[in-house]
Design a protein that fits this description.
Blueprint lengths: L29 E2 L10 H7 L14 H7 L5 E2 L5 E2 L7 E2 L7 E12 L2 H4 L3 E7 L5 E2 L3 E2 L6 H13 L9 E8 L8 E12 L11 E8 L3 H10 L9 H12 L3
Parallel strand pairs: 1-4, 5-10
Antiparallel strand pairs: 2-3, 5-6, 5-8, 6-7, 6-11, 9-10
The structure holds 5-O-phosphono-beta-D-ribofuranose (RP5).
5-O-phosphono-beta-D-ribofuranose binds next to β5, β8 and β10.
């Protein structure tokens, strides 16, 4: 995957012009396509296995099939380019493996019990692209199911194998990832795993590090990550909040 050492910039979008139904004749979004996905280097990225071989959405042969299988329904513009289901992003091009919807899986692993132990932890990884602390998730491979991707990504990024465990599905839908554009975006299945105690976790693959952070509340988690000199991956705040709410009511 491309390495983003900064959040791609975007044209600011006034709230009333976010919906695609609102006319904005002079809308000029910023192209966030990284060098790895431009004409010259696309074949290498396809060979590496993370990018589809289509330079523009017009080259994609199976839009009806993709639209029918989408986790979040989306529409197309007059040129048959797929449109981000949340509306304008201020960004165009593709900074993800696929045009349109890119499916991810996000395993949220929580260890300990507040009532029993007085403390509880969540397992996070440090992303190699932004350096921020995030859920150890990743993209669903072609032909793979979301439950299988949850287990594989967790194992690849932390070494923790929860193959025998049945998680609680917390959320399926759009993730506000910085790589999203008007024509390529991420939707995820986030699931909650509960363990009695923390287990050994080692950062690997896309992860610079893996660590357990105190997770009694979102405030405590944010403070713990900051005290460690880090930052939480903003796109994952709603997913982690959903996990905390599921455990306690409201976090
Ligand atoms: C996030 O990007 C998703 O929620 C998922 O955690 C992640 C997948 O991208 P990579 O980690 O594979 O770059 O928005």
């Amino acid at each position: 995957m491309p390495t983003n050492d900064h959040t791609p910039t975007a044209v600011p979008i006034p709230a009333d012009l976010k919906p695609w139904t609102m006319s904005w004749p002079y809308y000029r979004p910023v192209d966030i396509t990284p060098p790895e996905l431009t004409r010259k280097r696309l074949p290498d990225s396809v060979r590496e296995g993370w990018a589809e071989p289509y330079l523009t959405p017009e080259d994609v042969p199976n839009w009806p099939d993709r639209a029918a299988r989408a986790l979040v329904p989306f529409t197309f513009d007059a040129y048959h380019w797929p449109l981000n289901p949340t509306g304008r992003t201020g960004k165009t091009g593709r900074n993800l493996g696929k045009w349109g919807e890119n499916l991810a899986a996000d395993p949220i692993v929580v260890a300990g019990d507040l009532d029993r132990d007085g403390e509880r932890y969540v397992l996070l990884i440090q992303r190699s692209d932004t350096g921020q602390w995030a859920i150890p998730g990743g993209m669903v491979d072609p032909g793979e199911t979301a439950p299988a991707a949850l287990v594989r990504e967790l194992r690849e990024e932390t070494g923790v194998d929860l193959a025998g465990h049945t998680p609680t599905i917390l959320f399926t839908g759009y993730v506000d990832d910085p790589r999203n554009s008007d024509h390529a975006w991420i939707c995820t299945t986030a699931a909650l795993y509960r363990l009695p105690h923390t287990v050994l976790a080692v950062g690997a693959d896309d992860a610079l590090a893996a660590a357990w952070f105190p997770f009694a509340t979102m405030l405590q988690l944010g403070d713990a990550v900051r005290m460690d000199g880090g930052l939480l991956y903003p796109a994952h705040l709603p997913l982690l909040t959903a996990a905390c709410d599921r455990l306690d009511g409201v976090c």
